[in-house]
Write a structure and sequence with these properties.
Elements (H helix, E strand, L loop, with lengths): L10 H14 L3 H14 L7 H12 L9 H11 L1
Helix pairs in contact: 1-2
Length: about 80
């Protein structure tokens, strides 16, 4: 069964969803579903300031081919510790 849910989001969260779906070529529903599954089903990961900057740079990249896979970024950053 699938149900529709209407939610109100601040502009900041809406913009994050829109950028993520553009970069990942996914629907808005897919991005929100993944966020909910991650929040309720797995420990919530809190990126460091460096990771946040790199994520924002990746989302703002004008060339989608220039973006980096999130798992690759996490592996690279965790190897620096």
């Amino acid at each position: 069964m699938v149900r529709k849910v209407a939610v109100t989001l601040p502009d900041e969260l809406y913009d994050l969803i829109e950028r993520a779906r553009a970069v990942e070529h996914r629907s808005r529903s897919e991005v929100v579903q993944e966020a909910l599954r991650t929040h309720f089903g797995e420990p919530v990961y809190h990126p460091s300031d460096l990771e946040r900057r790199q994520l924002i740079e990746g989302l703002e990249a004008s060339d989608p081919a220039a973006t980096r896979d999130w798992d690759d970024v996490r592996r690279q950053l965790s190897s620096r510790s």
